Fold this protein.
Amino acid sequence: MDEDDSMVIDSGSSSNANASLSNEFDIESYINSYTGLTKILRLLFIAEYSEDPKLKSDAFKMAASEVMKTSNIELYHNIVTKSNGLIKFDSQWVDNTTKKNSSTIDKLEQDLNVAKANIVKDSIRIAQSDLGEFYYRSGDYSNSLKCFVRTRDYCTSSKHILNMCFNIIKVGIDYSNYSHVFTYTTKAEQTPDIDPQSIAKLRAATGLANLESSKYKFAAKKFIETPFEQNASVFSDIISPQDIAIYGGLCALATFDRAELKKKVLDDAVFRNYLELVPEVRELIRDFYASKYAPCLNALDKLKPVLLLDIHLRAHVDNLYSRIRSKALIQYISPYVSVDLVSMATAFNTNIQQLEREISKLIMDDSINSRIDSHNKRLYSRKIDQRSTTFDKSMQVGHDFISNTNHLLLRLEMLNNNLTVNNGRKDDKHGGPGGPFGFGNIPMELIQQQQQMFAQYQR
Amino acid sequence: MEQFINECRNTNNPKTLKANLSKFEEVLERSHQNLDAALGHLDPKLQSLGYLFVLNAKISDPNKNINLFVGQIQNFFLTFAPEQIKVAGTIVCRVARHFTEYLIKLKLEIKGIAPLKRVINSLTDKPTQLTPVHSDFLQLCILSKNYSLALPVIDAEVNEFNVEQTQINIKDILTYFYYAGIIYATLKNYKKALDAFKFVFTAPATALSSIAIEAYKKYVLIHLIEYGVAPSFPRITSNVVQRNIKTHCKPYIDFSTTYSTNNQVDIQTKALQNEESFKRDKNFGLVNLAIKSITRRNIKKLTQTFMTLSIRDISEKVGLPPAKTEQFVLKMIEDKEIFATINQKDGMVSFNENPEDFSGPQTLLNLEKHIQKVAQLESVIRSVDETLTLSTPFLKKLLNENRKQSMFVEGGIEMDENQ
């Protein structure tokens, strides 16, 4: 039944693929799923890395108009310089905002002082948090982090703690400081009676942090564990639901084995909701699972230009892609004793030379155990003679053991006789036999070594 | 002097004789001009001990004829009676050391190999015993390029020495292993060479010795040749060595880091950059071998990847001209490094698996030998363990610890009672 299902969808997938996430990248609808600083940062990222001039200018314009809604002067400067004259510098806005910023800071700091003078925990927390929020909005990363961390001492309920954690996580992600994200997501997850929305946000944040530190398997797990959230605005200042599907899907594809892929990704009731948002990814995972590698790899190639415009994924696209490709190759080969390279090349949409090179690379790093018959263009799986390898190994171990033991005995004898390399003086004289210390001078380390040696023996 | 000769002739027990002769040492040192005459009166075979004492005294004679002296020692070493000289190990070693130095000065190293071999055999009860003469012997073997003659000695895998008999010192031990490493390396037995060099810089140490530094340099290079990666320190390496040795062999560390990147061009340039210091250490040959071993390793990898591959493809993959590649592959087949056949008609090389299937009498014999060795080792370890556990300091320590423990327990109980 499952087969039929995938077949039907398969026929529709090619037309479907062009719709929402295709070469014609719809920046408007893409960016509307984000809010806050990440929206501007993503726009700027697209503007910087896009090769399409129209997209570039659109992105710059949108970024500039977004940033002018905030008080982040530094980011505005940044956008203007990077746009190479596309955006006109609005000095009036900058002046106004600077003035407004300084008066806001004064006000907020005064609030904080008042709160501190009154020693009301909660109002200190709110004032501190407001100040942090303001710094965050105006682009002062280190100060905002400082303020948010300070609120920690004034948290009285688990809701406060969660709040503080989310603030820090937000700052951490937007300014690529992922160690904070790790610490505070763990901390947040430990708070009692946490609501499902927060869990979703936390999982997504952890997944993102794992992705950024190239721990793809953990990232995939976290994304998949993210509870489905109808209300996208819950985490729109970090990530969009579509992103969760794409990030999670690709990471899973790159690291999960077939069984895991089926059980945890395709059949997972929660994650399926996310996948529905990005049918292309769902289809390519399905193709991969059904061993239809050519359409799967084609779809991946089609997705690539869009993924390269993603602020978090760009650095990892190539890495993930090559992993997925190697996995596909390995999976393709695994059931066969011998494989015809010609038919394999067609299945993977490549020529034989290219394929041979890829396979030989995989063999060299021990990912597959077979050998290529380059003359007849075939691949044979290799049967390892366990007996020979065992013999070989045990001979080697035996040899190593004998030589190590001999050296150890000699060391023991040297220490017994106080014959060690030491500073000058004693070096050219003959080390006295036994010395005044005799056995008494044997360091404990040596006795331990000897005991270890015996342990080896008894094994 | 006559008294001395009479003493030599009349006393039979080597131990008493040695005690008696020791009194004459000063006399002998003072009468340098009479020593040759004394030697004439003594028979090296019958009065070995006396002969030895005279030779020993002659070392300090500034006016002696070196050629004659070397001849005398050589003759003596080939004819002495082992049971006599055994009691005077220290003196034998001293004479042997000077003998070696003279030979090196005269560039007659080959002359000393047989005599020193005999000295080693007579001084040791078992082949696993180490003496200072060992390192002299190896030095002569290396200088006269008779590497294989040293093999029976270094293959014996020493694990003990007799300090009272030979007054062996740390330098003798370290140089022995250093030389052994050099010999194994020249004979291309890299695994054993690594073992030997490793011992030099992992020997118990509270200071860094230059022997250890030189050994470490060679160790790094040979490790690259054999395994293709930079080595790490074994756990037993003393802290002083681990901390300081790298500053003394910077070019080598640099080279090994570059080597690990597997980029042939970078490796070549790095080698040339440091050519001077490598040449100064006489290690440039090893450096070149290390570079060459990259190709070897690459071809070896290809054999695991391919069943058949044309010479052209191989040369493309390892970056050598085709004609040279064929030679290279041929050489590797001859060295039994790879198992393959070259078909010159269509230029294909078919790689085979290792035909060794570990059956038949040879394997059994090998196993037997190994097991015997291990069994021997076990008896040695047992006896060492026995001496150690029966030694007074060890027992004292054990007793102290027991007492401490029981005191602690008693203390604990008292505390409980107080509560």
